[in-house]
Amino acid sequence: MKSFKKSLLDLFNLNSKEEIVNELHDLIDGHKSSIATRLEREFIFTDYDTKEFVATDCFITPPMKGEYYVTNRAIYEVLQVTHAASSLRTPGTIQVRKQREFKTAG
Questions:
Q1: Which domain of life is it from (predicted)?
Q2: pTM
């Protein structure tokens, strides 16, 4: 894959406005997901009462206190969100309380 700078320089070699627009669209589209991926942070969900692991997920903006987080097993209310301040690689934690468990078929 070409670098962003190289791709921009290549725009000057194009002849028509249509080619330039299409190339710019592809260029921006490709880097949009790259930027979003870098903004995402990992969070580990734990049950407030039992301290058990619930899930792990990545967010640009995690759910806030009072909002709900849904897994394939239950609905949880978010009680506390702690952002990791020490490192970008350290996950944050979200404490949740189970509000409703889904019944399994069978």
A1: Bacteria
A2: 0.64
